[in-house]
Amino acid sequence: MKIRxxxxxxxxxxxxxESGGIHGCYELLVIQQGHANLEWLGQLYTVEEPAAFLLSPxxxxxxxxxxxxxxYLYVEFEIIDATIFPALPQLLQWNSLQxxxxxxxxxxxxxxxxxxxxxxxxxxxxxxxxxxxxxxLMNDMRKAIVLVRYLLxxxxxxxxxxxxVQQSQYRTIEAxxxxxxxxxxxxxxxxxxxxxxxxxxxxxxxxxxxxxxKTPFHYLSxxxxxAATSYLQNSSLSIQDIAQASGYNSLHYFSQAxxxxxxxxxxxxxxxxxxxx
Length: 277
Prior knowledge:
The chain has ten helices and eight strands. By secondary structure, the protein is an alpha+beta fold. It has three domains: 2-156, Sandwich (Jelly Rolls), CATH 2.60.120; 164-215; 219-272, Orthogonal Bundle (Arc Repressor Mutant, subunit A). α2 runs antiparallel to α3, α4 runs parallel beside α7 (216-234) and α7 (216-234) runs antiparallel to α8 (239-245). The chain starts with a strand and ends in a 5-residue tail after the last helix.
């Protein structure tokens, strides 16, 4: 784990508070006091203190205050092993639970106590970038994430939080995502993906988009483009070989898609990013 940025509000050193945006890191956003609205992945969360949101990388978010007494803190961080962080379905579940976990008071108390310690660390680290403070902050972040997973396990055992149908939907989409992550080099059709999970093709697309905010083939394109970018930067393979290794059957299509996303050809991108080719 690596801490990228921390902040809190109100902070006498910051005239304009951070209110959101988009970045490539994970984030913990803690509402310590007051009422707030959070826009994230097309949803609006209206909560009262205390609340702790977990946000995934590259997901637009915006904090809208509805209280003059609002206090909050945030920690942006990177994780080498992303498996320790809850997957998107669990994030959606956790964030939707904020402000309505009254029946889990004994379990939540432990988490809230950890947030109080975290608040002091964030404030201290914001003013003193000490390696030892960073290590302490990272340890508390790891503990917070583990506690979230523990609370989710408890919530899942309680009636009324997640219906069995919804759980099945999450598992289905996760299975499709894991399959595409392992088979992105292959030619994957909607029929093939639908047969894997025994669903109608159009329903699979709607369900995937509902839970992930994108279609399965948009996600597949992202996987292939990420693989191609990695090959460009870290290998001496030719552009043709990179296209094939990343799941593109056509060099022309790969070049077009790459330029559309990055504003330059694969060769130009490699030259500008110190590729080995």
